[in-house]
Amino acid sequence: MLAPPMAEVRTAMMIQQWRRMTFLHWRYPVDDVRPLLPAGLTPDTDDDRVWVGMLPFLMDEVRPPWLPPVPWLSTFPETNLRTYVRGPDGGAGIFFFSLDAARLPAVAVARAGLNLPYRWSRMGMRVHGDLTEYRGSRFAEPRGAGYRLRVRSGERFPEHELGPIDHYLTTQYRLYTVVAGRLVSVDVFHPAWVLHRAEVLELEQDLTTAAGLPQPHGAPLVHSSPGVRTRIGLPRVIR
């Protein structure tokens, strides 16, 4: 599995900084993931398995390209649950099962504009040197789907130790969503991630079961990164 080519986003609808990112990935049977995808998308398989990722991070300096960041509103914790797919044209991208965010206005705008499955959540993030603690719990769901994660970041991966799967899981430049019954893609530009080793010290989560997936088996594949600056492109209907 190879990372897709970098996207070119000439006209951005949003600028964002993704900071203190942790990547957790598990492999799932294809039949667990396929029924959760919209028509037109197929799982991007790896030896008849599909990767599912949980990515907590700090969203920062969120703004349209023509406006400055707004204090409080432009900085908040977010956590994504995603999988890897192929579109009707064979292109690679990601599909979100859920996106938890701590700012209700950001949730409302993303749901209204791109129909992304954002959830308003009570969230927190604390950093102590190389230790980061993330936590979240959804407001509007009776079970309060959420998570608690403590992870320690280590030294930077030497480039020669990173294989195709490391780049594939962290380097994706397109997301897919469904807007008004139509499959839509959005390109995302960002430079290459600087990836670090990481160790999970504590993890409790039920985001996967809330999405309709079984609880993952075994320890996740873990990466961390200080972050990247991103440009989010305009949505494009796939015909």
From TrEMBL:
SUPFAM superfamilies recorded: Acetoacetate decarboxylase-like
Coiled coil region boundaries: none
Protein's name in the database: DUF2071 domain-containing protein
One Pfam family recorded for the sequence: DUF2071
InterPro entries per UniProt: ADC_dom_sf, DUF2071
